[in-house]
């Protein structure tokens, strides 16, 4: 079989066959012949952002419903339990401590890293306890799940946000056990970075929900 | 030629290898077989619906059917009492048929089945990005199948509200026999399905972005891969909204909340306690998910059909880049058209016009795709093997079904057509039969790679022609019924005087539907017997170009040999002038193909 040269393809053109694709450079896809660089973002980070995208759509669905129902004449606001202001503060503080974790592990300071993970998880737990406390405050005030549309959203969305935050606490427990095995170094600590991203997202999501409740 | 790398993996026991496997190929086959089982159930339900619609009362029934009715009465004494089907039982058939087919057949087999099987094989990866999550996705899917089927057996039976589960009836357990436990199970099943789909979607997108082998740029992906990439993205964005709606609905049913139940609603002469929500909110949330869901089903079908068409036309796909852009455009537009399902809900005509505009815009990328398929076929020496026939059938069904969509997408025309069999005919052609045909094209095409054997061609052709003619008689005729005004969901058309002249058409449809159903038995026989007794398949029986066709049939664990392949070209180098063969594998560099 002879090697195809430019001449032979030219000849084919002359006898009326369709113009050949860009050949032999490798198909007419216009892509470079050389393999490109590997994808610049890690699996874990893409997976996490996709997860956050879907969580955003989940709560997007809830908050659109909130906005639609907010316009109904039957909508009645209930008093926001004061505890929620405290828990908001706790969660914001935990975002600071998880950043401190990341700073510590980036400098290879294993001891402080462990401590800050612990503090973050503790603040997360305190937040959850506070959210339950807020439910008790509402019950004491005689505001229950079916009382009004506003109270229904308050109970359900605090609960669902709490469940998502529990996932974050689970991840923190996992990275904490890994830090005790000295798995993370200044250069290689992606799980901690992913935890931090998730945690900040949960903080941001809570602030968004809380503002929605307060502004009603 | 790559060899298997089984030596690199520890030998696994039967259960780890075939049941609790994290191998994407095993998970794919699990998805496919489970979805086929669900399809049999969903199909049987539709056969019962057709049995009822053709001969609604015992006095018009041909005697030959008596044994079938007495059998059905014995199996389902709650729904069919001494040969007479109860109206609410008919409605539960409608609901379960729709739900099972949309979610548990199409979504499951096209993305769960083909997605899992093909993504790593066609991009040159050893497995998915998160294999455990992938396996978990299947097991949650299986659980959701069990939960939805359980709805058939609980007290009161399956829910009555159709696959769209419109509120407030879906929010009130007292609204009907199936609206109690049956409806609750429906919501749980759909929620589980959404979670499973999410896990799958995360995997597909991550795998497609990060695990493509050397040289496999995005613009060298087979169109099946592009379609799965876009579909997975759609799923990640659409399913959470359905999940949100389902959670609110569940609280309305069990927690006494009133998101979808209006205040002061009277049921059974009693005012309900609900304080006043908005039933239309459910429709908005549902269709915000529901329309993208249509494309979650149709896009992979388009991708599969594109690749199969190109292979058997022995020509490059026409307009590859436009195919990719069109699919992206369709995916984007699918999020801004949901209102066209709600033209009759009292929507402002201005808003209706906006939704009409966005809906008709979808015709543009869809038409681009259709013309590209025609362009691919133009002047080709087509090989009419079974997968190709089904791919052609897909194009035909998609065009026919798509055309009636233009009528329904126009708010003015929809006011007349709404809630008639015109709608039933339309959506069955465009989002049931056409993806079904593309799914069959894919199954016949990749069967040799899945099981190492070929399916029987003769049976395949019998299956195709019976299905093709049967489906057209069933669903094309339904358009005519709809124009006459035959309503959807009525269980006894003979009760309506204005439908008397077209009673015969319902009989024709039912007969064709039974032929269509019987054709699927031919398929099932062919599929399962070929797994064991089919002709041994070669490595590349269709002379295709993509990476999976360089691997043994079936490929071993880990797919590729010690080294992953390097991709040198796009997947459509068919009939390249000057090349030795009429196809060039994606891994071949010029030297290999020209110096013999």
Question: What's the topology here?
Answer:
The complex is a heterodimer of chains A (216) and B (596).
Chain A: H1 6-14, H2 43-70, H3 83-106, H4 110-140, H5 149-180, H6 190-215
Chain B: H1 14-19, H2 24-54, H3 66-75, E1 80-81, E2 84-85, H4 87-123, H5 131-150, H6 181-210, H7 223-254, E3 266-267, E4 270-271, H8 279-313, H9 320-333, H10 349-361, H11 363-377, H12 386-409, H13 411-417, H14 421-451, H15 457-484, H16 503-533, H17 590-594
Antiparallel strand pairs in B: 1-2, 3-4
Provide a descriptive summary of the structure in words.
The complex is a heterodimer of chains A (216) and B (596). Chain A is 69% helix and 0% strand. Chain A has helices at residues 6-14, 43-70, 83-106, 110-140, 149-180, 190-215. In chain A, α2 (43-70) runs parallel beside α6 (190-215), α4 (110-140) packs antiparallel against α5 (149-180) and α5 packs antiparallel against α6. Helix content of chain B is 62%, strand content 1%. In chain B, α14 (421-451) packs antiparallel against α15 (457-484). The longest helix of chain B is centred in the N-terminal third of the chain and has 37 residues, at 87-123. The radius of gyration of chain B is 24 Å and the shape is globular. Residues 1-8 of chain B have low confidence and may be disordered. At the A-B interface, α1, α2 and α5 of A face α6, α7, α8 and α17 of B.
